[in-house]
Amino acid sequence: MESVIRGLIVYGFLLLVFRLAGKRTLSETTNFELVLLLIISETTQQAMVDRDHSITNGFLLILTLVGCTVTLAWFKQRFPKCDAVLDDVPTIVVENGRAHKDRMTKLHVDEGDILESARELQAIENMDQIKYAIVERNGKITVIPKRST
Amino acid sequence: MQKIGDLEINQDLGFERRSWRVERVAWAIAALILVAALLGFLGPGPLGKATAASPDKSLSMDYFRVERYAAPVELRFHIARALAKDGELQVWLDRDFVEALEIKHIDPKPESVQINGERFVYVFRTASAPETLRIFFHVEPNKFGKTPARAGVVNGPEIRFSQFYMP
What is the rounded CA–CA span in Å between residue B73 and residue A32? Predict the structure, then answer.
């Protein structure tokens, strides 16, 4: 029973922390952030497994974690509000070349980040060529270029 | 699906603004939790240090009020040599406290351990011992919550203290 409770608590805590950290946190995975993610996973594993290294405990924890994910996926599909609460919503940060500074500040995004994604994804040279830039639910920035007439 | 210009998107700025407010409150709470942890409210720390002592100070013990489940814990006993009888010092811990812990090792190692009713008695040889004997119990809590405890010297003073074991 303790294994399942541990799994549920750890799953709930991670969900809460990563949701509250904001969608841009750890979304780009720089070298340092990759190391940070590995440390977090190691710490989580130790707290969850405790001193019980049995196969049964491992199986129970895996079933608990996958079970949580499947249950939440069902809730998200059935209740759109639940989907927004758990996975956030996309936010438009540039519209027709005009940046929404207030939204960018809240999302910790600057013009440099947007132009980086624009260069990488669409070979765009400047903000005027951007029709929309959107901070997606996973924190990535997608860019839609203006169509040349 | 909402339509903004040519873009079909589930943007919800009202929800987003509420989320940002909740995020900021959550960060403030997280900062408070970290400060509480640094000070010793969630485990060993400067404000969590405590000493339980008998009225005549011949027996005292240093401990932290808050410790954590399965983490190493040290209980430091300071015992006046005068409490030893016939070159032997008998320190006891009450059974409920011992059952809440896993005793990893004791420094110095006791010569024997005896069960006397609801007490575990640890017998130490005290030949050529200093004025104050220092005995360290290295333990690991194996339960959560508040754990009241009693300890003492057989036919001598007794101390009461309480620790809280975080999950």
Answer: 33
